[in-house]
Request: fold
Amino acid sequence: MKQYGDTPAAIAMGLFTLGGIFYVIQLLFMTESWLAQNNVGPEAVPVAQVLGCAWLGYTVVLISTFISGPEGTRRFFNALVVAQLGVLIVLWLQSFSEAYREAVFDDAIIVSVLTALLLFAWSRIRSRI
Reply:
């Protein structure tokens, strides 16, 4: 974490990374049970696992920034912020729909917290990346 040179940013990014690890496990290894809990049929398994692979890629790069520092990763962090904001918007829009509210409301709250952590850390390190 000392590679970040900013302890609050490193802590926030570490918590965001733990959230990413959680999503990788949930989407790659617990796909069917997670979808069933949210009343989503097994036809969505491939899409959920593709999302798990995306989270795996994000998480691997985030972990590498703890090893080598965030310098030189501006494009990655910009893309990550855009993707995270997109996920946040989609989940909250879906949570307003009666058809999806039950399935996505808890994820909308979790993603809101993760987005806040990411934006906080990104705002503190963006001059160095």
Remarks:
- The mean pLDDT is 91.
- The chain has one domain: 2-124.
- The helical segments are 7-29, 31-37, 45-68, 74-95, 101-125.
